[in-house]
Model the fold of this input.
Amino acid sequence: MRLRVKEEASSLYATIRSYALRGKLLSYKNLAELAEALSLDDLVNKLKLLPYKDALASLEAPYSARDIEKALITDLAKLHLSLAKASGSKLLFAYYRKYRALNIKGIVRAVLMNKGFEEIKELVNLDIEALVGTRDRILKLMQARSLDECVEASSGDEFFPEIRLLQQLNRAGQALDPQLLDVIIERAVMRDIAVNLFEDEGRKYLNLAGFELDSYNLMALLRGKSSNLPQGRLRELVVRPGYRLDAATINRIIAAPDLEDAIRAVRGSVFAGLIARLPQGQNPIEAIEAVLREELLKRARGTFAWRALGEECILAIILLKQEEVRLLSGLVWAVQERVPAKTIADTLLSHIKRVEEAR
Done:
C-alpha cells in the first residue's frame, strides 16, 4: 500500500510538472519572432531569453545549426526521461525510442551514401544514447560500412529487426528512398508503444498514443505503396494490434492496385473526416501526414482541458515539446541558410497558428 501511494504521488508530480511546462510552450508569435533572427548568434541570444537558456548554455560561438539542434534534442531527451521516471510509465519509456530513431536513421542513410566514420559522427547525438546506456551500441553501428555490417553491428539492439528488413529490401533491389527508410525505422518505436499501450497502465494514453499508432500504420502503408512494395512487405510494416484503423481498411489499402486507390480506401476509414478536403496541388501523402500531425497536436493541447490532472497530460506535454523542438530545429537550419522569415512562417509554422486557434 505504501508503495502504491508513492507511485501515485510521483505520477501526480509528473502531471503537475506537465501543466507547468504547458504554460512555457512557445507560441506562434514566439516562433515567428525567432524566424526573424538575422544570424545564428542572434537566434541563440533570442532563445536564451526563452525557456532554452540552460539547454544552450554549453554552446560556444561560432555556432552551427547542427550543434544547436543537438543541444535542443538532448535537453528534450533529459526532460522526457525525468517525466518517464517520475510517472513510472513503460509506455513513456517506449516513446524515448523516438530520439534513438533519429540517430539510426542518420547512420543508415550515411552508410547508404558511403560516408565514413568521421562524417557519421557529426550526424549522431551520442548524449541521447548515453542517457539510456546505449552509447557503446551506437558507436559500434557508426563503424559499419554497408547495410550488411549494420545488421551485424545492431544484433541485440531494439532496432535490429528494422535494419535487417532494410537489408532484405536492399538485396531485393528495392530503392530505399528517405521516406521509406524513415517509416521502417519508426516501426521499432511503434512496436514497443503498441506492446505497452494495451496493458492496463497504457490504456490511459489511448487518445494520443492510439491515434499516433493508427497514423503510423496508415503512413507506413501509403509510403510503402508509393514505393511499390509488394503486398507481403506492406504487411510487414503494419504494427499490431492497432487502435481504430481496422483490419478491413488495412487490407483494402494493401490490396489497392495503386496509390490513388489506396487513398480512396482511406476515405472510407476512421480518418475520412480528417482527409476529406486535402489541399489541391500538394503531394497527397505529405498532405495526409501534415493533417495527422496537426490533429495529434490538437489532441495533445486539448488533453489539458479534457483530462484535467490525468496522466495523459504527461504524454501530451512530451508530444508538444517534441513538435516544438522539431520546429526549432527546422528554424535553426533555415536561419543558417538565410531563408526569409516570411517563408519560414508560411511553410514551417503555419499549422501552429491553426492548432492554437482550435478549441
Notes: Residues 1-6 have pLDDT under 50 and may be disordered. The two ends are 40 Å apart (CA to CA). The chain has 20 helices and no strands. Residues 231 and 350 are 36 Å apart (CA to CA).
